[in-house]
Amino acid sequence: MNTHKAGFVNIVGKPNAGKSTLLNQLMGEKLAIVTEKAQTTRHRIFGIYNEEDLQIVFSDTPGVLDPKYGLQERMMDFVKDSLQDADVFLFIVDTTDRSDPSEFLIEKLNKIPVPVLLLLNKMDKCSQAHLEHTVELWHKRIPKAEILPISALEGFNTDIILPKLKSMLPENPPYYDKDMYTDKPERFFVNEAIREKILLNYDKEIPYSVEVVTEQFKEKEGIIFIDAVIYVERDTQKGILIGHKGEAIKKVGTEARVDLEKFFDKKIHLNLFVKVKKDWRRNDRDLKNFGYR
Questions:
Q1: Phi and psi (nearest 5°) for 92?
Q2: Are 217 and 226 in contact (CB under 8 A)?
């Protein structure tokens, strides 16, 4: 008799460890935006992977950090939530990161009574001696963890992860319909595609001061018409975001439209607007309205 396995696999780690890149690799499509900037991921994203006898609900969360203001506190709330409902943890560590490890995560993962698969990412960027030393260190830090060196970006050893997870998951019926691949609505991916282009095209404080809200998402005659508002915290940021004669924001819109047409496999008509919402990252009401509870 065939059995069906299903469970929640939560991906955790520090900022820039490669969590979102790994999620996209495992899902076989781009669900999470990826940039080299820290704090690219702000929300908890579910990617629902299905086989005939298997369903894995991957949970990608913001990187663990010491919160400095309201938005970062809400981001850490998503991380804490993810520590409550996992059947397996994928703990991803950047082997090139020379800073101190997250004691918060180490303590939590040692206490939680579920399997931990510890992924040493960016193994292609370090020497064999450094990799062996890193494996030894992490064996001591989380003794119960199974350790696997990978390169999420290059796809090295990532093909081993799914079979390992399948052996670790309990027998359960699927939690979601088998035709679902995420829990997020279409507008979420519009917001994220635009925010990714802002992260890639602007420096300093601008990318972190931005929130995107899709106000219209309407399909007509095979074309999706989208109106999205980009919120910033100050008038000076609005000017920088728009750029001289609107050239900067036009570039963001063009690049986002290209990605969205690939994602939805349809023609996109995208209008972008920029508005100021003063100090929204520190305002509880604004954060709640933007989906940060």
A1: -105, 130
A2: yes
Backbone angle region of 35, left / alpha / beta, with phi > 0 → left and psi within -120 to 50 → alpha = beta
pLDDT confidence of residue 38: 85
* Cα four-point dihedral sign 220, 223, 229, 235: negative
Query: For residue 248, what is the enclosing H or E element?
Result: helix 247-264
- Give the up-direction half-sphere exposure of residue 228: CA atoms within 13 A in the CB hemisphere: 30
How much is the pLDDT for 36? 87
Domains for the chain: give ranges and CATH numbers. 5-168 (3.40.50.300), 186-289 (3.30.300.20)
In a 3-state reduction of DSSP, which class is residue 218? strand
What residues in the chain have per-residue pLDDT under 50?
none
Q: Kindly report the length of the chain.
A: 293
Distance between CA atoms of residues 64 and 115, nearest Å: 20
Residue 66: φ, ψ to 5°: -90, 105
Cβ pair 121, 20 in contact under 8 A: no
- Extract the runs of DSSP E, i.e. beta strands, from 61-149: 88-94, 116-121, 146-149
**What integer pLDDT is reported at residue 1 of this predicted model?**
57
- The whole-model pTM stands at 0.91
